[in-house]
Structure formats: C-alpha cells, structure tokens
Amino acid sequence: MEADSQRAYERRWWTLAVLCLSLTVISIDNTILNVALPSIVESLDARGSELQLLIDGYTIVFACLLLTAGSLGDKLGRKGILTTGLALFGAFSALAAFSSSSQMLIVARALMGIGGACIYPSTLSILTNTFHDTRERGRAIGIWAGVSGVGVAIGPLAGGLLVEHFWWGSVFLVNVPICAVAIVAGRFFVPTTTRDADHALDPFGAVFSILGLMGLLFAIIEIPDRGISDPTVLLSLAVGLVFMAAFAWWETHYEHPMLDLHFFQNPRFSAASATITLTFFALYGSTFLLTQYFQFVLGYSPFKAGVLTAPVAIGIMATAPQAPKLVERIGTKRVVVMGLLIVATGLFSYSVEPIMSSFVGGGAVRLLFGVGMGLIMAPATESIMGSLPKAKAGVGSAVNDTTRQAGGALGVAVIGSVFAATYHRVINVPAGLPAGAPEMVHDSIGKAIAAITTFQLPADVAGTVHDAASDAFFQGMQVAAWVGCGVVLCAAVVAYRYLPARADHRVRDDPERADDAKGLAALDDGIYT
Questions:
Q1: Centroid of chain to Cα 527
Q2: Where in the sequence is the domain holding 211, given as residue range(s)?
Q3: Distance CA 3, CA 10 (A)
Q4: Alpha-carbon dihedral of residues 507, 513, 516, 519, nearest 10 degrees?
Q5: How far is CA 278 from CA 147, 215, 488, in A?
Q6: Residues 21-80 pLDDT 10s
Q7: Rounded mean pLDDT of the chain?
Q8: Domain identity same for 226 and 165
Q9: 510: phi then psi, degrees, rounded to nearest 5
Q10: What digits encode the pLDDT tens for the residues 307-362?
C-alpha cells in the first residue's frame, strides 16, 4: 500500500495530464456543438426550441446525475467511474454523429450526459486525493480550470473546421478517439483511490435530486414556447419544486445522505458554489447566443465563428493557472470579486453593437471576459474542494460540477428564453411573404434564413427578411446580455459579502477536524475575516 502511494505521488503530474485530457472531451463538447447549430438547422430542420433542447437535454441529464455519480465514485472507486464514463461518452457520441432526425440527436445528446456525469466529478475528486500539499493542490486545480479553457478554445475552432470539411456529425465523432486515449492512459497513470465501501448509498436522495432538477429545468426551457400558464409548464415546475423540497428534507433526516446539507453552513463552500452557479449562468447563456450571432447576423463561416470565440478561452487559459498565486497574495475574496466585475463589464459590452460587430473590439471584449472567468474558476473551485474532507471529494466535486452545469443549463434556458421572448416581440415580419414564410421568420433567425432559401425569395425581399431578423436578434441578445450582467453583479455581491478572505489550511488538512461539517462552519466563522 505504501509503495502504491509513493508511486501515485511520483506520477501525480502525469495523473493530472490524464485527468485534464478526460476533462477536455467534455469542455470541447460543450462548445464544439455551438458552431454546428446552423448546419443542424439546415440538415435536420430543427426549430429554435429544439436547438435549446439539444443544448439543455445533455446539460439537464449531466447536472441531474452528477451528485449520484460523485457518490458512487466515493463508494465504488473513482477510477472505475471515470473509465465507465469515458466509455459511455464515446459510445453515445458515435450514436449522435449518425442521428437522422433532430429528435434522435436530442436523445443521443441526453445519453451522452450520463457519461459526462461520471467523468466530470471523478477528475476533480481524483486530483484532490492525489495532490496532498496545499499550494501544489491549488496550482493543480488552477491548471485543471485552465484546461477547461483549452476545450472552450479548441471546440469552436475544431467544430468550424469539421463542419466546413466534413458534416455536422463529425463534431460528435471526434469525441470517440479522445475517450479511447484517455481510457488507455488512465489504465497506467490514474491511481485507484480509497473506496468507502462501508458507506451506504442514498437511492432516495438520488431519485429526488434527479426528478427535482429535471422538473425545474424543463419548465424553464419550455416557458418561451408554451407560456408560463401552460399546464405542462406548471406541472413540471410543481414536480420540480416538490422533489427538491423532498430532497432537502430527506438529506437532513437520512443517516448517510448523498449530500450533507450541513456543508452549506461553511461560507467557503456555499458562497463559492453560488458564485460558480451564477457565473456559468452568464457564460453558457452568452456563448449560446454569440455563436449564432456570428454566423446568422454577421454571416461568418463556422470556422471564423470559432476563431472569434477563442479569445474567451485564451483569457481563461492565461489567467486560471496564475490565479492561485494571486490568491496567496491578496486572498480569495478579492480575486473572485475582481474577476466577477471584469466578467460583468464584458457582458455589458456584448450589448453594444459597434463593439460586437468589430473584429478587434469584439475580440478584446471576449478576451477580457475570459480573463475574468480565469480569476473566478480556480479560486472558487479550490474553496469548494478545500472545505470538505477528502473522503467526500467525489460528492464535493459533484457539487462543484452541478453548480456549473445547473448554472449553465439555467443560463441557456433563461437567457435563451429572454432572448426568444424579445425576438418574438420586436420582429417586424415583412408583408407580402408566401404562405408559411411569416411563421418561419417569426420563429427564429435560423428559420428566417431557411425561409429565404425554401421559398426562393427575390434578392430585395430576402435582404429585407434578413435585416428584420438580424435587428430582432441583436435586440434580443442585447436584453439577454443585460440580464447576464445583472446576474454576475449579484454574484459579486454574494462573493464580497460571504466568501471568506482566505482558507484555513489547518482545518482542511486535518481529517479528524474536517470530518465534522458543523465544526468546519463554526471554525470558519471564527477564523475568516
């Protein structure tokens, strides 16, 4: 056992490399699809609401299963869960690549979420248990966070190249070899972490959390098309609220809860979780609209659209690995709040058309946005993981990832809903269009452009349709950007008010003291400034 521990320590940076490769396949997948959306609209005749389901169907399943997968990793072994997740993700990616309808693609994407839910928490929990030195762990998490930026950059670029030279399904097929390499490399370099075989599973907690999140997110996604008073929306919302309440009650009464809610008494844990949720709300929501803006409004190719999203990733990659060093100097609170204010500034700039339509100005704003994200991600993640005992690393990682994915799903849903409602309200459909065309123009800008080809509209009429849809699109994006900016400013207030200035490493690194969540909270209250 001691020899295995020594070997794991010597290979820790190789372990980090494999974990980052596993993370990359998810972060690439989150962004590579965006540049393929116009091609999917054309090939599969997908409606605007189906595009949201294509994004959120995956994210909902992902977010709903993260806590369960993290708990299973703590009990059964994180390496095995990681390997299983990579295998499932690769297999369902191949299925998505050859989908023959938008409905089949949505189902395949949702199944990919099962694999993603197994991968994401496993990477961070294995990392936390592999790096024992406090500062070394912080820098490893910084690299982990920076690598997620690599995926953000590679995704749109690779997606643009693949769509232009092959077909839209290739953006999914590319996941297969990455998963295969990660599985093989993990066999040699990822250590087998300690299992907590005596700890009971929490099947009721898992079911309650899955049904609760699914109900809430589905309701939010469907509001733009169905309306808040629609029976399906109201039923889904009611189901979500009931099961989330049941989850909270059960977790406080069950002897072995999947998620000990007492952890949220620790401000490092709760404030960091809230900050990540609100930040990824803005990130996913804005990215969902930006890639469509570049292609539908500005007329850029998929590859050029991918190039224009790269500055965000460059900012994240450059800043995230350095953020832990800055935290050591000025503290977590100041670094995170500074990052949030930078992100809010970038989001507000998204609503200024002269900036966004400019190659240089738009690139600078997106670089600024990425710098802010890099300052937030690593310190907030380290706050969550550092506030929990190592035995709970799987669940802790799952909470970190659930906040990201739930925040992202809500961002796409809410910001997408605000955008869609604004588009439908302000679109000025030109008169005299053929039967069926006005409905398409009113649905979304993608369908409006499809109407131009479908009905072979004359050049002057086509130009009028495109201009009307483009104007409505930017007005919708403008309102959505303001909403995102407001949400990030709320996150800045939360971080400033509740996020402790610095961590107390004595608590985190002492297993006996760290096992008591209530004691952690009490110690935090007395130690943090």
A1: 32
A2: 202-257
A3: 11
A4: -60
A5: 21, 20, 6
A6: 888 888 777 667 766 777 777 677 666 656 666 777 787 788 778 777 777 777 777 788
A7: 77
A8: no
A9: -105, 105
A10: 777 788 788 878 888 888 888 888 888 888 999 999 999 889 888 888 888 878 88
Q: Kindly give, in sequence order, each residue whose CB lies less than 8 Å from that of residue 251, ignoring residues fewer than 6 positions away.
A: 202, 205, 257, 258, 259, 260, 261
CA distance 107 to 36: 17
Residues in contact with 513: Cβ distance below 8 Å, sequence separation at least 6, in sequence order: 506, 507, 519, 520, 523
Residues in contact with 322: Cβ distance below 8 Å, sequence separation at least 6, in sequence order: 142, 374
- Specify whether the CB–CB gap between 339 and 315 falls below 8 A: no
CA 148 to CA 79: how far, in whole Å? 20
Length of the chain equals: 529
Is position 514 within any domain?
Answer: no
Closest listed residue to residue 257, CA positions, set 212, 210, 213, 201: 201
Which class for 81: exposed (0-12), middle (13-18), buried (19 or more C-beta within 10 A)?
buried
CA 32 to chain centre: 13
Q: Alpha-carbon distance 373 to 149, whole Å? A: 9
Cα angle value 436/440/442 (rounded, 5°): 120
Tokens matching residue 234 = 């109201």
Report yes or no on 40 lying in a domain: yes
In a domain, 516, yes or no: no
Instruction: Spell out a b/e string for 95-111, using b for 16 or more CB atoms within 10 Å of the CB, else e.
Output: bbbebeebeebbbbbbb
User: What does the DSSP 8-state code read for residue 390?
Assistant: G
Closest CA to 173 of 184, 158, 195: 158
Give me 529's structure tokens: 């400034």
Task: State how far the Cα of 386 lies from the Cα of 73, in Å rounded to an integer.
Answer: 18
Burial class (CB in 10 A: 0-12, 13-18, 19+), 430: middle
Are 194 and 309 contained in the same domain?
yes
